[in-house]
Amino acid sequence: MITKKLIHLSLILAASGSVFLSSCGESGSGHEEDPSPEISVNDQDAQENPERREAVKQIFYTIPSPMEMAALIRKSGADFDSSILNPTEKSEEYTSVTKQALNLGVYGADLSYASMFDQQQQSILYLSAARSLAKKLNVEDAIDNNIIERVNENRNNRDSLLTIVSDAYWSLNGYLKEGDREEVSALVIVGGWVEGLYLATSHVTADNQALSDRIAEQKYSLKDLLALVSSYEGAEELAGVKQDLTEIQALFDQVEINKSKTETSKDENGTMVIGGASTTTVSDATMESIKAKIQEVRNQYIQ
After folding, report:
1. Which residue has the higher pLDDT, 300 or 117?
2. Cα(174)–Cα(55) distance, rounded to whole angstroms?
3. Do the Cβ atoms of 201 and 218 come closer than 8 Å?
4. Residue 115 confidence (pLDDT)
5. CA-CA distance, 43 to 135, in Å (whole number)?
6. For 167-176, how does the pLDDT look when each residue is reduced to its tens digit (9 = 90+)?
7. Where do the structural domains in the chain lie, given as residue ranges?
8. 14 and 195 in contact (C-beta within 8 Å)?
């Protein structure tokens, strides 16, 4: 039987481990112009490396509401599809630290997906697989009870959860730093980002503009992700990952996102309303190229 503590740990793994998909925030505002919420960073290395701190802050700021993503996927007419997930039994096959870290992120994203569709049995299996890899990486104790309790108390407060997720990441990063393995935390995030985008592109359809827009907005989070990976200079484990992300970025360079001018007005109650929206332009050929490349990279990571 899964305890409440493990369920809350799954939320942290899914959030800090996967960085599921970027959005413009729940208010629908643009990434480039919106100020990010203040996120506490306690790890000393974060203070010493402002580039890494900023990259991580921006990545976490682009995490959408899981309910929003579930609604977008369901709106496309798609049903839960377990066949597109990384089989949980493969968790025992990953023996290298690189594969274990990447697939901890992958399983975190799969766990999010299963949870979104209320697949309890699948969620249990993916939680177990994620915990198995965390144990192999010796990071199962990186998330303490205090963080788990804070998640439980702030589940409906997005800004607070962003702060908690950031704290969880830096807890993991600090834990790995003690063993000179801090680049592992970046691998976890990359694995989850790739899997999240893979799941989204697996469901995108020509008539689901909202989901297509979310995929297009990965152009922003990819920039931050590359900045994070690049901040670990000389890390051999990240060399191949950086090349993968660079190749994906070349495809996203063909995506156009235009921010309209911000306008202000008053509603019927006299309340000031600030408006403005971004528009994305992605050709069918570009979307297919992104989808194919993400599938190629993702399949390479889960082998």
Report:
1. 300
2. 17
3. no
4. 75
5. 22
6. 666 666 677 7
7. 4-302
8. no
Determine contact, residues 245/229, Cβ cutoff 8 Å: yes
How far apart are alpha carbons 141 and 143 in whole angstroms?
Answer: 5
For residue 248, what are the β-bridge partners? none
- Structure token pair of residue 238: 């990240």
What is the C-alpha separation between 11 and 223, in angstroms, rounded?
A: 25
Q: Please, are residues 203 and 211 in contact by the beta-carbon 8 Å criterion?
A: yes
Enter the tokens of residue 247: 């190749």
Q: Is 35 left (phi over 0), alpha (psi -120 to 50) or beta?
A: beta
Can you point out the beta strands (E) in the chain?
A: 256-259, 263-266, 272-275, 278-281
Residue 128's CB is within 10 A of a number of other CB atoms, namely 16
For the packed helices 209-216 and 284-302, what is the interaxial angle rounded to 10 degrees?
Answer: 60
Strand partners, 273: 265
Residue 11 has pLDDT above 60, yes or no: no
Read off the pTM.
0.76
Identity of residue 233: E
Q: What angle do CA 12, 16, 22 make, to 5 degrees?
A: 120
| pLDDT cut 90: percent of the chain above it | 22
Asked if residue 21 lies in contact with residue 196, where contact means CB atoms within 8 angstroms, the answer is yes
Helix (H) or strand (E) holding 146: helix 145-153
Count of positions (residues) in the chain: 303
**First-to-last C-alpha distance (Å) of the chain:** 30
Q: Which of 174, 186, 292 is nearest to 239 (CA)?
A: 186
